[in-house]
Design brief:
By secondary structure, the protein is mainly α. The chain has 4 helices and no strands. It has one domain. Helix 2 crosses helix 3.
Length: 117
Amino acid sequence: MNEHFNDIFVTTGCPSQQQLLDYVQGKLTAAEQHEVEMHLADCELCSDALEGLATIKNKEKIPGWIIEMKWDLLKKLRKRYRNRRKPNNYLYLTIIIICILFLLLAMFWTYYLTARQ
């Protein structure tokens, strides 16, 4: 099930979350900073993400918030994934109950017809 919840930055050429955080916090080397800036010139998604990160005053709390948001998102996605699967369980249960009822009905008719003769 975890393959449904992959990080969006993993499969793209975008900088990782840690690189963006380090860029905002000024922890990157000049070469790494230049590389991120070159990417930001072409990627609107990363530019918007960086703009949002830059507006946060307590930048040292960002990693904790990101982890908390990821867990909340994973919980919601798992809940939604489970809710989608529930109707199938009810369908199987309904089919089993109908089969049992038909078997009971067949047994009753068999007993009724043999007792009548």
